[in-house]
Amino acid sequence: MRRQSGERGLREKSAAELWPPLARFVEEEARLGRWASQKPARRFVYEFVRFGIKQAWACLFGGLMVALVLATRFFYPAHAALARYDFLFLAALGVQAALILLRFESLEEAGVIFLFHIVGTAMEIFKTAHGSWVYPEPAFFRIGGVPLFTGFMYACVGSYMMRAWALFDFRFHKHPPLWQVSALALAIYVNFFAHHYVADMRLVLFAASAAIFWRTTIYYRIHHGWRTMPLLLAAFLAACFIWLAENIATYSHVWLYPDQLAIWKPVGVGKLGSWFLLQIVSYALVAIACRPREPDDAPIAESQARHADRLTFRSRASG
């Protein structure tokens, strides 16, 4: 998307400029970036902080949901007329609507997130019916044993991926064809259901994931240069954070596994494998929408030009 921007000429807007609450800070940030680039130590600290801020911004919806889960665990009235799960559902709806109205989230992102709702809720209905986990509290807004707010827990993953893709300007080297990624994701999703009836194929699916993605590298832009990471490592690290969030959720009694019903204990590390596979499914949904591209110099040149424009505009405004 390109927009005419007055004195600044024809430039592709950055993710920050597309979100009005951040757009007001881009000129000051450009000055800070120029100052930080003058010495290696400053540059390292600046990029480290910038990376953390971008990650936090990408986690906005997920962070708000985790905050709601924890807050209701400790402060929600036990005998309130509105059940806790129903409050979480209505609050999540409100947060989602606010993000769209405030243009923190685009309609395209909301469409992909809605797909996560469908995929996640379908699996939840099946898994709870087979006793894989339970939702111990009552709810009016539910399908079978599944409170409707649970779809938003899966949507957190989709929201993060969509926002991170834009914020870090993802590019991919040696990315497999999308039909292979889609076929792998479908096989993983089917196995989540089928392993209740036939042999669990997750070891085969781990091997298939490695075979398809072992050469794939993510290129991501923190500032004016590319950084790289193997895609499989990125999926594993994301799975670790989701596992941590799952421990927070089960501690908050949002859902419980059978071995947690008598007394809570941390979710076993074996669940990391399930979350890793679910990351592959999630990545496939987002990749189909965003279309992976090979790295090139255009985003770097565009970023440098945007910063130069901001500094020039600032100088003229000051003068």
TrEMBL record:
<feature type="transmembrane region" description="Helical">
    <location>
        <begin position="232"/>
        <end position="252"/>
    </location>
</feature>
<feature type="transmembrane region" description="Helical">
    <location>
        <begin position="114"/>
        <end position="133"/>
    </location>
</feature>
<dbReference type="InterPro" id="IPR008535">
    <property type="entry name" value="DUF817"/>
</dbReference>
<keyword id="KW-0812">Transmembrane</keyword>
<feature type="transmembrane region" description="Helical">
    <location>
        <begin position="203"/>
        <end position="220"/>
    </location>
</feature>
<feature type="transmembrane region" description="Helical">
    <location>
        <begin position="139"/>
        <end position="157"/>
    </location>
</feature>
<keyword id="KW-1133">Transmembrane helix</keyword>
<feature type="transmembrane region" description="Helical">
    <location>
        <begin position="56"/>
        <end position="76"/>
    </location>
</feature>
<feature type="transmembrane region" description="Helical">
    <location>
        <begin position="178"/>
        <end position="197"/>
    </location>
</feature>
<feature type="transmembrane region" description="Helical">
    <location>
        <begin position="82"/>
        <end position="102"/>
    </location>
</feature>
<keyword id="KW-0472">Membrane</keyword>
<protein>
    <recommendedName>
        <fullName>DUF817 domain-containing protein</fullName>
    </recommendedName>
</protein>
<dbReference type="Pfam" id="PF05675">
    <property type="entry name" value="DUF817"/>
</dbReference>
<feature type="transmembrane region" description="Helical">
    <location>
        <begin position="272"/>
        <end position="290"/>
    </location>
</feature>
